[in-house]
Amino acid sequence: MPIKINKLEIENVKRVKAVKIEPTASGLTIVGGKNNQGKTSVLDAIAWGLGGNKYRPSQANREGSVIPPHLHIVLSNGLVVERKGKNSDLKVIDPNGVKAGQQLLDSFVEELAINLPKFMNSTSKEKANILLQIIGVGNQLFELEKQENEIYSNRRAIGQIADQKAKYAKEQPYFPDAPKELVSISDLIQQQQAILARNGENQRKREQLATIEQQYTMRAQEVERLKQQLANAEMNLAKTAQDLEIAKKSALDLYDESTADLEANIQQIEEINRKVRANLDKDKAETDAHDYHVQYTKLSTKIDEIREQKASLLKNANLPLPELSVENGELIYKGQKWDNMSGADQLKVSTAIVRKLKPDCGFILLDKLEQMDLETLQDFGKWLEQEGLQAIATRVSTGEECSILIEDGYVAGQEQIPVQQPVETKTWKAGEF
């Protein structure tokens, strides 16, 4: 069972003269009153009594009192905690009469339960880390967030490169009439030389035709002159006629190729190649942009998968409150970050988390509950009761919501007896233990 405060008696601590309180076991015990009456002194005295000398007020003795501070706290596990005497020495006695010390108290008293402002004033990251550690997923979530941040940074860089490539590709001119590959001037020259060689062969054949025609004419004349050699001449003539026919047919089939296009290409090769290079650059930039966008999409998928793992991790964790979670290293409650939460929600979240730190500590001290309206205060009290948590709180108020009222260092309505006057009665009275 969580350990709670059954009874506390305080004398001569800060503004408190003599106060006795028996807090309710679960829910809110509100110490009300006007300002400067000793409300906060009650909480400071409890923190000192249970938390040790590091919580001792800088001016623990009530101003004007010659009697040293005296604290008497009875806990639900039977422990009795006292501080009394000139040095306010600590005495812890268990139900069997065995004496103990601060170490025993530290084993079940959660420091933040008696010093909630320490938690509330910590950074958002510190708050989140405390929650993650107590629900046992801190290390796992840390690794997932580390992976997410690395992939996110990588994806961001790739996305920037992809955008740059796409922008570069868009800015590049494109020449649809340009070849797909760069033109080689040596290839063009070789093509030109091959055409010239074929044209030269054609010219040789033309010259050969002229020679044969000349031979034919000379031999025809020779036939006329040498009729006596007609038979031989006719044979030569017939043979030459055959050659003539063959040569004519070959000449008719000959076609001279033009080198004009090649010459123009050679002259314009730099311009052509400039267009080809521009087209190649544009194509490469578009391809690169597409590839980077593909990588970006894959990394986005990985980030989504990691975020799903984180959400599942927190969903399955035993969180102190419904709708309480951690996102990007910050506490989130009802969809709001810490600085956007209401003061009431901040107190509720803090109380729930601190309760989880040491489940054996069944109480918590809360100062300045005037930030809650009465309806919120009532809901908060019901929640504390449901959780079986005891809260001793202060509120600048004299309304009915207050469990007790502090006036000038006393509990209003309790019999006030001078603290230095001895009283021989077994009934407790203000100022005596």
UniProtKB/TrEMBL annotation:
Gene Ontology MF terms: ATP hydrolysis activity
Positions of the Endonuclease GajA/Old nuclease/RecF-like AAA domain: 4-321
Coiled-coil stretches: 209-316
Gene Ontology BP terms: double-strand break repair
UniProt keyword annotations, A-Z: Coiled coil
Pfam family, one: AAA_15
Alphabetical list of InterPro entries matching this protein: AAA_GajA/Old/RecF-like, P-loop_NTPase
Name of this protein: Chromosome segregation protein SMC
Organism of origin: Rummeliibacillus stabekisii
